[in-house]
Amino acid sequence: MINRDFDEWLGKFRPSISSYDYYIDFQKVVRNVDDIKVELNILNTLIGSKNIENDFEKIVTRYPETLACIPLLLAVRGYEIYAQDEDGAYLYNFKKMNYSVEQYKVFMDKTGLFDMLANHLVNNLVDYALGIETGLDSNGRKNRGGHQMEDLVEKYIVAAGFIKDETYFKEMYLKDIEKRWNIDLSALSNQGKAAKRFDFVIKTDNMIYGIETNFYGGGGSKLNETARSYKMLSQEADTIDGFTFVWFTDGIGWKSAKGNLRETFEVMDTIYSIDDMENGVMEKVFV
Fold first, then answer.
1. Does residue 1 fall inside a structural domain?
2. pLDDT of residue 22
3. Cα separation of 196 and 190, whole Å?
4. I need a labelling partner for 20 at 20 to 30 A (CA). Which of 78, 134, 195, 208 fits?
5. Lowest mean pLDDT: which of 13-27, 198-212, 241-255?
6. What average pLDDT does this structure show over 221-249?
7. d(CA 216, CA 22)
8. 166 vs 150: CA distance, rounded Å
9. To the nearest whole percent, how much of the chain has pLDDT over 70?
10. How many angstroms separate the CA atoms of 84 and 230, rounded?
11. How far is Cα 207 from Cα 162, in angstroms, rounded to an integer?
12. Residues 142, 127: Cα–Cα separation, whole Å
């Protein structure tokens, strides 16, 4: 992989690697709502109520478990909600009532939930909860996004014939690599002081490959720091017989930090993009 042109290589970086299931995990959304479907349907009887405070009191007295649904109606995860005004500060518990029913009525009134229900602003709390869960699940995109590059790289590792927990390993610490293959990696760990972990490790007959993966759709100071630290890691790895550091990265965010990436590219032979993977780099590198 010598004599590669940096600008040509960078020019093939992707704006995104979002798969279809990146946006919303509908299975999880439906599962979460199914867990409280019965309670939501009981609360549905409050919709259009002409005497909502009395009706609410009857429901929570007879079916106290319905209270556990209330935080979700305000797009809150968990069972505790803090609220304060000129009348005082309260930490409401919706799993186990810690105030009088009257105080929970105050909560329902001041948060606008009574108004929403009594004035028919929603027709069905199960449908409403599905909408709320969908919105809350969109917050999970960051976590899903963080794993997308890992998942993509793993797909190519498997396609190249490597077998999980036999010839390739996920999320492996330096100390575990040292123990398993009796190799000294202290040059990478600041003499054992840093607990470094690789996204993947591939073991072939004559080499151990430590692999990092990341994707940056947007810029930021982290990219320069990543490029610098991986350049140093690569140089440290070069001093160890039988070990090679490999970096798979991509994303148009790098265009804002291309100076540092260029420096790393110029000293590191084993830095690759999605385009490289699509063109069979796995079979060429891991031999």
1. no
2. 78
3. 10
4. 78
5. 13-27
6. 93
7. 15
8. 18
9. 95
10. 48
11. 14
12. 25
Cβ atoms 157, 202 nearer than 8 A: yes
Helix (H, G, I), strand (E, B) or coil at 198: strand
Among 84, 105, 139, which residue terminates a domain?
139
- pLDDT of 2 over the 70 cut: no
CATH code of the domain in which 253 resides: 3.40.1350
Looking at the structure of the chain, the number of domains it has is 2
DSSP state of 164: B
6 in Cβ contact with 266 (< 8 Å): yes
Q: pLDDT tens digits, residue range 57-76? A: 999 999 999 999 999 999 99
Q: In terms of DSSP H, where are the helices of 99-185?
A: 101-110, 113-118, 125-137, 141-159, 174-181
CA–CA distances in Å: residue 241 to residues 55, 185, 201, 238, 279: 75, 10, 16, 8, 28
Are 45 and 104 contained in the same domain? yes
Q: Convert the pLDDT of each residue in 148-180 to its tens digit.
A: 899 999 999 999 999 999 999 999 999 999 999
Confidence band of 1 (pLDDT split at 50, 70, 90):
very low
Cα 98 to Cα 79: distance, rounded to the nearest angstrom? 12
Single pTM value for the model: 0.69
Q: How many helices (H) and strands (E) does the chain have?
A: 14, 7
Type of residue numbered 203: K
Q: Which domain holds residue 76?
A: 26-139
Residue 22 CB partners (closer than 8 Å, separation 6+)? 141, 144, 145, 148
Instruction: Tell which of 112, 139, 166 closes a domain.
Output: 139
Give the rounded distance of the alpha carbon of 67 from its chain centre. 30
Locate the DSSP E strands across the chain.
80-85, 88-93, 168-173, 197-203, 208-215, 243-250, 271-272
Give me 1's structure tokens. Answer: 């992989």
